[in-house]
Every structure is written in structure tokens, then in C-alpha cells.
Amino acid sequence: MSARATTAGQLLVAVLTALALLGIGRVQPALARTTHLVKERDDLYALPPPDELRAVTLGYRSAAVDLLWARMLVGYGTHFEEKSRFPDVTHYLDAILVLEPDYRPAYRYADTLLFYHPGGVADANDVATIRVYMNRAFAARPFDGPLWLQYGQFLAFTAVSVMPDNQRDSLQAEGARLMVRGVELGGDTSRILSVATMLDRNGARAAAIDGLRRSYALTDDPKTRDQIATRLASLEGTAQRDEAERAMKRVETRWRQDFDFLSRGEYLLIGPVVDRLGCVGPSEALRSECAVDWSDAMRDETR
Fold first, then answer.
1. Domain that includes residue 286, residue range
2. What pTM, to 2 d.p., does this model score?
3. pLDDT over threshold 50, residue 7
4. Is residue 138 situated within a structural domain?
């Protein structure tokens, strides 16, 4: 090949390169603006529907759940920083819970992710969505006391701030009942004092007293028990408080006699120890020592 042909080829390459760079320079700003606008809009959720997602994971469901959870948290943080909407939170939660229905972190943070969402202000629709996941949490983890307590607190203290005035009292009362259940399942018993106040204010004094009595039986902290006893006395009178204290002392006596190596909560869970042979017959079965649950045992013993 002659030198002239080589020079012509190099010149052609240079011209084409210059034209390509010129084209890139003219097109790139418009593409950058379009890309920026696309990022400001909703993200593209590329995963299949939840039911089909099971097959896509090829059996590696736990790994897929961890990946989806991490991806959702990163996306949530990014959108929070950009102050833009992130409507795919529910898509991720649904996908995660289809793969692992009792995945606790999803229930633990669902109210935060859906209520304090980026790029907007929470409203009653968000509360309704959170309650859907709340009910799923109770179905999947019915004995998870901290979850019951958490959702009760959400309804009683947070959700009421965005609800109409005519719904706030009922929502707060519902939250208080959930908190009572959470305490019964192992939540912080000190919360029962504020819960009892809410229930009493909403006309549910009987529920407040019942919750206080249960918490009195469950707590081991002397200070908390004194506070609960004082609150009980204000709601039902000193005689009833003394009766509850006597009943609890009898339970503790039986606890020490039967299974002192167990915690009080574990002993209460097992139930009263009954002498089966000594409780044979209609008349014997009526004795307090033969009661098979604590409510009957304590009621009979305090008559």
C-alpha cells in the first residue's frame, strides 16, 4: 500500500472520529437531562409478581430475601436523600413476605418505611396500608410480643396524628388493646400504665383493669409492681388491689414450692400444678388446689 493511501486512510479515520465526538457532544447533554428526569420519576420495578418470584429464586429463598431487603433499604435511603417518591416499598415487602412469610425485619420496619416515606407526607391511606401488614404480622408471628407492642404504639401515638378527629379515639383504644396484648406476650410491662390511662379515657375501664392485673402478675420489678398496684387502686379501689396482691402472693408460694428453678413467667405459662389422684371426684375438683388455670385458682383462693 502506498504512503498516499495510508495517509488518506488515517485522515478518514480522524475525520470520522471527529464527527463521532461532535455527535456525542451534541447528543450527550440532552440524554443527560432525560436520564436525570427519569431518575426523578418512579423507578422501574423489574421483578416478577410475587407468586412467580418463588420459581425464579430456584429454591434460594433466604438469599433472595436478604438481597431484596438490602436493595429496598438502599433504594429507600437514596430516595430519602433525593427527596423523591419511592412507591415500590410495598412491592418489595410483598415479594419478601411471599418468599418468607414470617420475615421479622419486614414487619419490624414496615410502619417506618410506609409512614415516613420520602418525597411526601403520610396520610390515612398510609395508615390503612400499614394495618394490612400489621395484620399479616399478627397472623405470621402471633406470639411476638414486641411486634404487638410496636403496632399498638403506632396506632395509639403516631397514626392518630393523620386521622380524622372522629376516628382518633377508637384508633387509640385499639392501639391500647394491642399494647396490652404485647405486654402479655413479653413486652415492657411498664408501658401498661400509659395504656391503662388511654383505655380508661376511652371508656374501657374494665379492659384497663384486666390489663393491669395481668401485667401485675407478669412483672418482676418491685417498683413497676407498686406503680401498677397504685393505678389499680385508683381504678377499682383498695380492697380489690389488696385482693390482687394476696392472690399473687399465693401464686408465688406455689411457684416456690413446685418449680423454683423456673422463672415466674415460665411457671405461669405452665399453669398450676395439680395432684391428679387427689383431685378425682366432683367435690375434689372444686377445690382451689385442683384448678387447672390461674384465673380459677386465684378466684377460688380469694373467696
1. 237-303
2. 0.61
3. yes
4. no
